[in-house]
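Ticket closed. Logging final result for Flagellar protein FlgN.
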Amino acid sequence: MSVQTIMTILEKLEKMHRSLLEHSYRKTELVKKGDMEELDQMLKIEQSHVAAIETLEQQRQQVVTEYLRAKGIAPADTSSVADVIEATEDETEKSELQAVRKRLISVIDELKQQNDLNQKLVFQSLQFVNMTMEMMRPSTEQINYSGKEVRGQNPIPKKGYFDSQA
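Final structure:
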């Protein structure tokens, strides 16, 4: 088992995450525009990306575990690329692995930030929709006259023009 196989998988993961990041930027614009049809299509594309990333991640875990076993290291439940970097003796491979890992982590961090922004935008949009619906919904208070006023039973006594005590 070589480090090159792990690097290839990491590069594929980086490529998929970059593509997902580009879609995330586009999704931000779609949320701002309110284009629900395009947003729906974007979500379908993102789901296929996430499925591909999950497959690559499973491959990465398997290859990392095999590499560590081949080196005589008992792999942990979740073996990481950092474990491989520590186990690698060739300095060139070690530095290449570190570079790929660093790029991947950077893309993932940027993707997290963009997704947080998108989540906030969607939340604000929902708040706006709810506020608009509340404004359009009739209130429970009666603005019209009450039943007594309509029937002529006004609680304010009417003063007559004729004073009987005079």
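The chain has five helices and no strands. No further action required.
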